[in-house]
Amino acid sequence: MKKRFIDGKAGYGKAGRTRAVQSGIAVAAGLGAFLLSSCIVSADEYRLGVMDKLAIRVAEWQTADGTIRDWSVISGDYTVGPSGSISLPFVGDMPASGKTTDAISQEIGSALQKKFALKDRPSASVELSQFRPVYLSGDIEKPGEYPFAPNLTVVKAVSIAGGLRRAEAGQRFARDFINAKGDAVVYMADRARLLVKQARLRAEAANQDSFEMPKELQDKPEAKALVASEAALMTSRKKRLTLQLQALDDLRALLQSEVETLAKKTETQSRQLQLATEDRDKVEDLAEKGLALSARKMAAEQRAADIEATLLDIDTNSLKAKQDISKANQDEITLRNDRDAQIAQELQNADAQLDELNLKLATSNSLMSEALTQSTDAARFDNTSGAASIAYSIIRDVDGQPKEIPVQENTALQPGDLIKVTAGLYMR
Questions:
Q1: CA–CA dist 383, 372 (Å, integer)
Q2: In terms of Cα–Cα distance, which of 187, 180, 183 is closest to 367?
Q3: Which of 48, 197, 225, 381 is most enclosed, with most CB atoms within 10 A?
Q4: H or E element in which residue 206 lies
Q5: Contact present, 49 and 80 (Cβ < 8 Å)
């Protein structure tokens, strides 16, 4: 029959040849439309990967006799295997991973033409019939493998997988989350107060007049009130210390003045004692010669003794004043040492309390994270101490290497992506 069509003699005739040519044109037009749909896919430069499914159809236009040969033995559905290749009859394994459908179609035609030494290269239509799947893991209801569809986003994929993980019947992870967050609120408030107190104590230990707000609290609205309260306490304590030191200074000044006065009295009394002693000696000389009465001698001796007693009292008072000055100096040293010791003790207590609060806060955060991990229903509860967060990331092959990329809910996915959903906690 084929021969008669070529010869144009028996069987078909001119009308037959016309119908055959028209039929060939129609088939070629249909094949062209099919190839056009393949070009639409390849226009996006989509690169094939393992588990992509292809619909391949091969036809050959034979110019010698104006007919189309259908390569039905090759046409069919194919899947890109683990090695990244597709296996075709007569052609064998053909690398497909990383290539476009247009490139595959060209390679199929060239391979068949070379294999059978054909004059005309067969036309291969390669259409992506099914994308390779995406995978979901983490804090979702139904992790696993899901088919990819165009315009698939992260949130759509999570919805397909049943949404975020929810607690089973009878479990109270949300309640545990609320309790842990309630404790965290108290711990965070206590921690803020201790941080400000710690900054104030360090400033006092360094004899500074003021202190700066801790960097950790600069974004906290309640920090200014805490700093103002501790600053007022710091001013009060400093004023009290200043008054105590001033009182000691005044006492020392008074005692020093007394010592100086007593020194002048000592000088005056010493001169009087010298005169009294000289007078007494003269009276004794006269008494020995019988020129002076014994009463006068006794008066001179009494006067000298009185002056000596006065000098002794003055020296005693001077010594006592000097002792009081020494005691005032020691009181100042003791006052300063007691203040430094008190500040050091308070700072040590504040550090210990901060360590304890950090441990309690870490425990509360762990309990909240565990509750979120078990059930993302707890994520709807929020307060000023922290917030539940749902983080999304995808693992995608980039240049042949897997790479984890943080994404948002509306990020468009690609076939083969692994979506990781993580429920966590961040502190404000």
A1: 15
A2: 180
A3: 48
A4: none
A5: yes
pLDDT in tens, 81-128: 999 999 999 889 999 988 999 999 999 989 988 888 888 889 999 998
Distance between CA atoms of 427 and 128, rounded to whole angstroms? 47
| pTM for the full predicted model | 0.46
155, 410 contact by CB (below 8 A): yes
User: 303 by DSSP, 3-state: which?
Assistant: helix
pLDDT value of position 292: 60
- Which DSSP letter does residue 139 get? S
- With H, G, I as helix, E, B as strand and everything else as coil, classify residue 134: strand
| Among candidate residues 54, 85, 66, the one with its CA nearest the CA of residue 23 | 66
pLDDT tens-place string over residues 146-164: 999 888 999 999 889 888 7
Two structure tokens written together for 99: 């290539």
Rg (CA), the chain: 53
* Model confidence band, residue 26 (pLDDT cutoffs 50, 70, 90): very low
Q: How far is the CA of 273 from the CAs of 65, 145, 316, 374, in angstroms?
A: 159, 118, 17, 101
Cβ(163)–Cβ(140) below 8 Å: yes
